[in-house]
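Weekend entry, working from home. Most of the wet-lab plans are on hold until the incubator is repaired, so I used the time to fold the two sequences that have been sitting in the queue since the last round of cloning. Logging both here for the record. First:
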Amino acid sequence: MSLWDSMKMFFVRRKLLANQIPDGCPHPLEEWMAIRARATIKGNAALRKSIGVPKEMTREVFDEYQMFRFREQMAYARKNTPHYRRKLEGFDIESIRTYEDLQRVPFTTPGELADDPFHFFAVSRTQVKKEFTTSGTSGVRKTIGYTVNDLISKIDIVASALKDIGMGPGDSLHVMFPTVSAWDPSLVLVGACKILGYGSSTCSDTDISVQMETIRNAGSTFIIGLPSFIHRVTVLGSRDADLKSLGIRAIISTSEPLSEGMRDNLEEAWGCKVLDVWGMTEFGLACAIECYEQDGLHTDEANLLFEVVDPETGMHVPPGVEGELVLSSLNAEGTVLLRYRTGDVAAMFDPPCACGKTFNRKLRKPRGRLDLQYKIGLGSKTFPAMFDEVMFADPAVVDYRLEIGKDGYRDTLEFTVEARESGDEVATRLIDAVKGIYEISLGMEEDLIAEPTMRFVEIGSMEYSAKARKIVDSRDNQD
């Protein structure tokens, strides 16, 4: 490492709040949020007078912190971004005091961000350290700007999350994100490992043998990557190696939905827990991560404000009730987004958690996107994750694609399956699994969905693509 790199590392380490987490802290992620909230409270006389500086963080105090930061971010956005200067002109920012008050603040949509992303920049482009362009799952291209402080903040939250799942000195994180170019996850992940003194390795090769060799050579103890690719490595890599012998302590799944069927297979093959992560490029890599209870994802509420709304009315739904996830940045400098409609279908749960965290709210794993739902049969709403759940639960399946078509008045489901084995027995097993999905069985009972079909292809004939759309709807009108 050069002297200049050493100086930069020293500077970042000094700024990271993750380094203030006491050794042996049972809940590093929540402690990191408490440290950030206390720093904000200490730095604002009015807030300090209102709620004091708590030694132990409570949900009530953290709510006050969040609403204060939201008002500060609104004022910052109105002053510095062309978009919110127009949208929030004349708005009484100080009137937003409670979670319910948020409903009076206008939404921001992905379309608005895509139409003019630079009107969301709160600093000049010369102050933006990194620009990331992503089409995400929706296919709409959006550009996000991160300042140095934004990147440090992301490294900070990732560092605390790595501590929270049990990483420590002597551990090494293997990062596998093949073919991902829009947002380089290794930038933050490897940076967090360096800051903490942990080992790391990266490999973007789609060749399974190269991935396995990298894991062995690096002495990896944790893995993070796309679940579809980790699944592929698992199914194909297990033909030549005992994956449990590699000593992987945990696998972190991110950037794609993780089905429970796939999770079960991965945990059995590797002999460790598989933890889910949810995030968006618009808000950085790590927005929420599971603990080992695997009962919801702990959210980065120090930097983000989470809401769940009825997608039709835009009003809040109660805790535990499903709706559209809406996010607001609380500390962003580059791209600022307020009440951003993610399109993800999810729910939020109030604390505590069985893991011991006391004030951090949890996100139920999003089950799909509003723009990726398909109506079939009796008009039942289906999501790709519903088919992932049954297809990837079968150990023979490496990958699949589904085409929804029409035969007269019936919807048709034609699966193309890349599998380790084929034949009538496997086909029957998979067809029965698909027919076991409630929405499918309901449509078949009413004779509105035809018997699903399975077409098998050889392994390697279906080119792997990150975040590939598994479902193609070839019907003229799915309604």
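Second, folded right after the first finished:
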Amino acid sequence: MNYRGPLRVRIDEKPMPEILHPQDAIVRVTRSCICGSDLHLYNGSVPDTRPGMTFGHEFTGIVEQIGGEVQKLKVGDHVLVPFNIACGKCVFCQQELYGNCHESNSEATAVGAIYGYSHTAGGYDGGQAEYVRVPYADVSPTVIPDGMDPDDAVMLTDVVPTGYQAAEMAGIQPGDTVCVFGAGPVGIMAARCAWLFGAGRVIVIDCVQYRLEFARNYAPAEVYNFKELDDVVLFMKKTTDWMGADVCIDAVGAEAAGNAMQSLLGRKLLMQGGSATALHWAINSVKKGGIISIVGVYGPIDTLVPIGNVLNKGLTIRANQASVKRLLPRLIEHVQSGVLNPKALITHRVPLEYVSDAYRIFSAKLDNCIKPVLLPPSVRS
């Protein structure tokens, strides 16, 4: 796919990717997903998203070529490729902070590189294509275990680890009340994973009814449509004996609805790094001494948040891009044992040639779409 500007993506012919470094591999894509954070790019909400980019940071594929220094992969391996591009050697990779690799992204000092994202994340082409160049091929790409469904495998590149890390960062204690803002795929997975850490009650808040119904059945969770609530924070206080939730998870990020000022400044005028409505609700809905876990994507410019409430309530905020490589061993085990069923989130399987239709359906929340997967021609023949 080729990004041509906000709300415009199309199929195009681009040159075949090449080995540019002896640690590279070329992968023939077998599955690629459209992520909610791709919609931030699609809608023009992330700075330095340049026309001509190929999106896609969630993909699996067959190794077609390897550079001279690649030792852990061989041609023909079917791999899942985490969205983090990580060197494996820098001080942050050594701490297993693969989303903060210091070597892969020369464009920023915060986030590491991400496939198919804006140039603030390195400017690498992504996997919504037939072939993709994979740097540092010995570090993150992981051979898909025998017998694993490729649909499960592609969800392990981002959705499952991001949802899991959202729950992990939340420091959930046995019996905790956990509130997840956002019923997209990551929010639904975060709600599901909250139970794995001992949650006693899981609440999901969104404004799209079919997504809430999906979360009710899949997580499972109590679900509430914020459009039917007079005041989200007041509701959360009432339903928690006026204490607030033990933990709140922001799985929405830059394009949250629900507050006119935030939407104007963050979504229309692009004067801040996104509409921080969900983050406001999380900060004001959590109990004193509670924990906020943020996995929703915001832009790299300032965002209006009630930092005074954070201070005066004694809150802990934890946030990051998921360190997929660190989490993969336990998540593969959870999938193989049936504890997690990632492929159940996939509602639409779309030929790559119809990528523009897939973006339109996902962005406009049509046809009860939860998660779309793109299938290149080579896997449909």
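Plan for Monday: verify the second prediction. The two ends are 20 Å apart (CA to CA).
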